[in-house]
Design brief:
Layout (H helix, E strand, L loop, with lengths): L20 H9 L6 H12 L8 H17 L3 H18 L2 H17 L3 H17 L3 H17 L3 H18 L2 H17 L3 H12 L9 H15 L3 H12 L4 H4 L1 H19 L5 H14 L2 H17 L3 H17 L3 H14 L4 H59 L2 H57 L7 H29 L9 H16 L2 E6 L1 H5 L4 H22 L3 E8 L3 E8 L13 H12 L3 E6 L5 E8 L4
Parallel strand pairs: 1-2
Antiparallel strand pairs: 2-3, 3-5, 4-5
Helix pairs in contact: 1-2, 2-3, 3-4, 3-5, 4-5, 5-6, 6-7, 6-19, 7-8, 7-9, 8-9, 9-10, 10-11, 11-12, 11-14, 12-14, 14-15, 14-16, 15-16, 16-17, 16-18, 17-18, 18-19, 19-20, 20-21, 22-24, 24-25
Length: 645
């Protein structure tokens, strides 16, 4: 999914006797019944006739056609050589569409090889070309491909943004396959973020856009829904989804890889639901099919499932053997996630060698993090260079436009030249300010996401390893000491959950929906009063407590209050602070007053603290007013429009 080559050729001729030598060889290379070696030889022979074509345009089209065919035959050498020459010919002709198409082919080829930075570079170039010729559909397909790469690099927010750029185009053009792929990718993103309810919603949406020509996509979606149910502990629901998918009897013959996946997943769901009786045959049937297809990724998952199955059946030797085979195969094909899972399982079922497995787990985790970080950095560099080039092009274009306008104005009236330059300088200054503000916001968002990643992938991983090592210590002593030891382990597990929750909240644009506003409000004021050495009076009218405040408003209001109290502690030198929160039928009103040293409002309006408060309130479409004078304290009034109850 995500690897869709460009190309705009029709392989059809009405009379085979009129075929040129190059067309005859292409026709031979396209014949499915011939041995692969013979088809590749015909492809090479067709390539040897390219230079004999009379025009650059004809050479470019045939080269692109041959590159596409080489990709289909997995002939890397012929693909690369032909597509490189096709790109060169397109550049000579300055054919923007053909250039974009060649980059599209290179992107698909790189993605097939798992080279994400090169794939991203070429897809970005292709998108740029299709945007230039206003081919919105192909531009949207490039956005989908870029989103696919971002998701593989775990940059889920960026992936989601690209998908929502592509979706409106596909919906408008009623391209069901592309709509299906977008919703499926959104479902997979939210599954990784553990937003299972949202993931299920997107997979169900995907079912509404099943393309007729892809007959087994429905079964693939049922498999995705089954996996979601498994992760949520809904084993009967998972079994029902897999049974529904397997009702299509043609799948065993026409799509054996999907059939094996469904068999394995259904057996695993039954095992988790009912236990071990009678399931060994289903697991081994799926494994046999995957072995015959040389589906290494599927074999790894199958063996991990079998290891859990044998362990539950108390056949430890078989469980260890299956887990070790899964680990070795995952290691050989660089499936880091499954490699980590196999090591984690081995540490549990083989306690005698647990320390060895845990050390390996740490090394693999470190390699995985480093590899992912390097790939992200490469893609980020490509994005930066692309944006830089784009800005330079726009700037050069704008400069040319300004030059022509300036010359025209100079001929008409010299006096208008001064006005023109003055206005241009002002516009540039405003544009720079906006760009700086946007960059600052992006850097803040990136830092927040990075902290979440470090918490989740670094600190949480180390806590997990520590807990596993601790749990396996052969401690002896009094019963009370052993109980205390277990209590500490439970506490450590609770800390892991807290860190995971913090990480997920940092990644999300919206904090947890269970934000206890009133409880945290009292706690915040009490802590700040103790820190700032002031007394406080908090008045919350019953109308506020009785009526629910929207989550976005409560979290933003909490942040505003936190910023204001911080300013009081840092600058006001106040001994008393009064807070009043009340709600009318249409608005929520907050007043914060102190008896501190005060300040001149106009001369401090651009301070970071006041700007932060204003920005948060304006984001909620509210109003904020500061009233203060030196020596007479400060009062902050905030009014948020709530609408009718």
């Amino acid at each position: 999914m995500g690897v869709i080559l460009g190309g705009y050729f029709i392989f059809y001729q009405p009379d085979s006797s009129q075929f040129s030598p190059i067309d005859r060889y292409i026709k031979t290379a396209q014949r499915v019944g011939l041995p692969l070696s013979q088809r590749k030889k015909a492809l090479s022979q067709a390539t040897s006739y390219i230079q004999g074509l009379p025009s650059s345009s004809e050479r470019q089209k045939k080269l692109s056609e041959l590159a596409y065919l080489a990709y289909r035959l997995r002939d890397s050498t012929n693909f690369y050589n032909n597509n490189r020459l096709a790109l060169k010919e397109a550049q000579v002709q300055e054919d923007v569409f053909a250039i974009a198409d060649a980059h599209w082919n290179f992107g698909a080829f790189a993605l097939q090889k798992g080279d994400f930075d090169k794939a991203y570079f070429h897809y970005a170039k292709a998108r740029q070309g299709f945007a230039k010729v206003k081919h919105r559909y192909y531009e949207a397909k490039m956005n989908y491909n870029l989103a696919f790469i971002k998701a593989r690099l775990k940059e889920y927010e960026a992936s989601e943004a690209l998908l929502y750029k592509a979706l409106p185009v596909f919906l408008k053009k009623k391209r069901n396959k592309q709509i299906y792929l977008c919703y499926t990718q959104l479902g997979l993103i939210y599954e990784e973020l553990e937003g299972f309810a949202v993931a299920e919603k997107y997979h169900r949406k995907a079912l509404n856009y099943l393309p007729e020509e892809q007959q087994f996509l429905q079964q693939a979606t049922y498999n995705n829904l089954g996996l979601l149910a498994l992760k949520r502990g809904g084993y009967p629901s998972a079994i029902a989804y897999y049974n529904k998918a397997l009702e299509n009897t043609a799948i065993e013959h026409d799509s054996p890889a999907l059939y094996a996946r469904l068999l394995d997943n259904r057996a695993y769901a039954k095992f988790r639901c009912f236990g071990t009786p009678g399931l060994q045959k289903e697991f081994k049937q799926a494994l046999s099919i995957r072995d015959s297809l040389q589906n290494k990724e599927g074999i790894v998952i199958n063996r991990i499932h079998l290891a859990e199955f044998y362990w539950a059946a108390q056949d430890t030797l078989k469980a260890i053997k299956q887990a070790q085979q899964a680990y070795q195969l995952a290691h050989s094909i660089q499936l880091k996630r499954d490699e980590l899972k196999a090591l984690e399982l081995l540490a549990t079922i083989d306690p005698a060698n647990a320390a060895l497995y845990i050390n390996k787990w740490y090394k693999v985790q470190h390699q995985h993090e480093q590899q992912l970080r390097e790939q992200r950095n490469k893609v980020a560099k490509i994005q930066y260079e692309t944006q830089k080039f784009k800005k330079q092009s726009i700037r050069l274009k704008n400069q040319q436009t300004y030059l022509f306008i300036s010359l025209g104005v100079l001929l008409l009236l010299i006096g208008m030249l001064f006005f023109f330059f003055k206005q241009r300088t002002k516009l540039k200054r405003l544009a720079i300010q906006r760009a700086q503000q946007k960059q600052l916001e992006e850097e803040r968002e990136e830092e927040r996401y990075r902290i979440a990643e470090d918490l989740h992938d670094g600190v949480l991983s180390k806590l997990f390893g520590l807990r596993m090592n601790w749990a396996m210590l052969p401690l002896k002593g009094a019963t009370s000491e052993i109980q205390q030891h277990k209590k500490y382990l439970i506490t450590l597990k609770s800390m892991e959950k807290e860190i995971r929750d913090i990480s997920h909240n940092l990644k999300s644009e919206h904090p947890s929906a269970n934000f206890p506003f009133m409880k945290n409000l009292n706690k915040l004021i009490s802590e700040k009063a103790e820190l700032g050495g002031f007394t406080y009076e908090l008045q919350i009218e019953n109308s506020v407590q009785e009526k629910k405040i929207a989550q976005e408003i409560s979290t933003s209001l909490y942040s505003v209050l936190e910023e204001t109290l911080y300013n009081i502690i840092k600058h006001a030198q106040a001994s008393e602070v009064r807070l009043r929160l009340r709600r009318s039928s249409r608005s929520l009103n907050l007043m914060i007053a102190d008896n501190g040293c005060g300040f001149r409002v106009k001369s401090n309006e651009q301070g970071i603290g006041l700007m932060n408060i204003k920005r948060r309130v304006q984001k909620l479409e509210g109003k904020v007013h500061f009233r203060s004078q030196p020596g007479k304290g400060t009062c902050v009034f905030i009014r948020l429009i709530m609408g009718k109850d």
